[in-house]
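Purpose: get a first structural picture of the assembly so the mutagenesis plan has something to point at.
Setup: three entries, given in the order below. No constraints added.
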Amino acid sequence: MRALREHGGLLLAAAVALLLPATLSSGTLATEVLVYSLAVLGCNLLLGYTGLLSFGQGIFFGMGSYAVGILMTRSGLPLPAAVLASMATGALVAAAVGWFAIRQRGTYFVMLTLAFAQLFYFLAYSLPQWTGGDNGLLDIPRPPLSLFGLAELPLDTPWRFYALVAVCFLAVFWLLERVTASVFGRTLLAIRENEARARAVGYDTRLFKLAAFALSGAVTALAGAFHALMTGIAPLSNIEYHASEMILVMTVIGGTGNLFASVLGAAFYVLASDWLSTLWPRWLMLLGLLLVAVSLYMHQGLWGLVQRGWRLAVRGRAGAAAREQA
Amino acid sequence: MSTAANEPILHAQGVVKRYGRFTALAGVDLRVVPGTVHSVIGPNGAGKTTLFHTLTGTVPVSEGRIVFAGHDVTREPDHVRVRRGIARSFQVTSLFANLPVRENLRLAVQGAHPQGAFDMWHAPGRQPAISELVDAILERLALQARAGVAAAALSHGQQRRLEVGMAIAARPKAIFLDEPTSGMGVDDLDAMKSLIRGLAEDHTVVLIEHNMGIVMDISDTVTVMQQGRVLVEGPPAAIRDDERVRAAYLGNMITGGRQ
Amino acid sequence: MNVYLLQVVNGVGIGMLYFLLAVGLSIIFGLLRFVNFAHGAFYLLGAYFCYQAVQWGMNFWLALVVVPPLVGALAWLAERLLLRRVYDQPHEFHILITVGLALVLQEAVILAWGPLGSNVATPESLQGVVMWGSFIYPKYRLFVIAFTAVFAVLLWWLLEGTRLGSAVRAGSESAEMVTLLGINVFRVFGLVFALGAGTAALAGVLAAPIRGVEPFMALEALGVAFVIVVVGGMGSFGGALAGGLLIGIVQSVMSTLWPEGARLMIYVAMAAVLLLRPHGLLGRG
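Result (structure tokens, whole complex):
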């Protein structure tokens, strides 16, 4: 039972990874769910665990896309190396941005992340030799995966690529579970809870925030890299304000209480957007309304709703059982 | 007891703190002898808490020098001073409100060795030394029964005790307690008094207090502050009879358990 | 005519519009202590309501007078119904609720007027140019500069010389104190929020004949407003003016030298100010 509690999130995540191929017909859509789950996990690490509201996640997402795009089209690096390199890029960029941003707190911090997001966007726009400018990087290949030179796994179809992403996603989820449950993770929570107290008992909170940024950057860049490989392009829009905004919105709607909530938030957004946008192009209005509702009534997001429903159901059954016994 | 031959464990010279155009501390000198209980008293607005902030590193000084245990700590921020052996409690309760009491203390104990907190792989609880210390402090604070409860759910008196516990957890050389009894009822006061007395056996205690009963009973030295300066300093009996102190407090009735 | 002089004058014109755009945001931050991410949406509504009014045959002048208070009223409603409920929440939710509001408003605009932009005709009396020696300049843009200057004076008088203004300034020092003095702080908040939105809408109306209307100008306006408020100083009227003019002129001049750099540079400025002097040029913080 204890193992279930400790790894409940991972089990749920695994369940989602298995359910998606069973319920969706599009491998690309399924991959998109997991890709954005990774991005939201990165954002949640900052918001839910460290208490940092970042409008700059698009920076790392976009950098991840660009890094993998540049490496796959211009260098001979195999896919795994390119992906790892983009994670490293994300971590470095996030550490740099974080180093500046955490010099301020509260609203000023938020606005700094916003300023950097815009900065990187215009930087990407004005360096077309690296980023393809308005057009983005095109024709990013997805060669077969070489397993230690013994076998080759083709990634040509959407579902085959999904399998790779799913394995990586679960590995990252598991790692993040460990990190958030670790001494480090608990220290982040303390910093979120009361930063002044954390400093007063001896923690250099800036270092911890920086580490959280680097970790977030790596995971978010991984998402960006997978996105670029999935679509074959690294567009400017991945680094645009809208990307940062949507990642944040998914994080809040899913809930900041635990890691699986991030998967919930991403899945909700990706699937709703896919389904609703054909029915009603202005579906973002509903998302806006949902965000307002979350801010007013549902601070724990969708996960909070699920928890509340679960508790009501359990109590209802317990009540019924008690009544039966009486 | 203190003798003139003892090297002070804390020596603050000419500490000035300005906030914009407002001068909170106008040049404070303080010498704290190790192993003693040194109280800082004074009317509201005297700068006592600001002085604490500069001594513990919560805020930087505008001017002046602070030497602790032989090290010049003037430029060091609070989290570094913890490793020097300085720990504090806050006047306004500042705990990890939504975390359990035990976790509050674990964090405080770990904080004295913060490098260990970068462990991203292992969950806390693998170091018996830490758990043992947490248990010992829980016992000392008489909070064992409430160990698993969120700090916010404790009674005010229990929270104030936990505040002190957070300082003890760092195994400091000097503990700075800022109005530990503030807002406490009569029942909790005695427990806090004996807690502070017990602390004095292993630590140097620097205390801000409005409760004269405690100050006069347990202090070795009393420093009286007024308007950002030291007015007078000496043993409790001398302070009690000092005319200047009487004048400073005129109109300011200091009673125990205030606020 | 000297091309740089032209750009500087353009910059002043843009700068005055930027001031209008930013002053509301700055005041809202100064009093309510939160950043209104829906600010760009109010600018957008101002522009689109103006467009619609003109489509219906309304006179531009009438639109100028009617539209900003209308948007202000909508904002007042939003404050009353939604924002008031999150004041005692952590600042994240202030931001998020206004982000949600912004999304709703932007999508509503696209719903009503479609995703493509439109032009708004310059009012007849202000078409054409003014000639003064070798100085040739569009009449409408001169009007914008003059009008916003007059409006700025009125606004300044409102903030410095009236009871409402004193309440606003006092409220930004201590909302608690103001309540104790018997002033209904919440009513003041609502009015301030409406005022802020109204000035943004006014900027939208004035900008419409110059830039046309287009749904994504909300995001652009929001970004620029943030930069000006940060550079000028959050909560400062003078800061919004100084910041607006500074950014407007620099951006205008840069656009002849290095167009892409112009946009990049204002965000570098924003980041630099936040890092080195977070209270901006004239802010109190």
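Chain B touches chain A at residues 56, 58, 77-80, 82-83, 87-88, 90, 94-99, 103, 107-108, 110-112, 114, 116-124, 166, 169-170 (CB under 8 Å).
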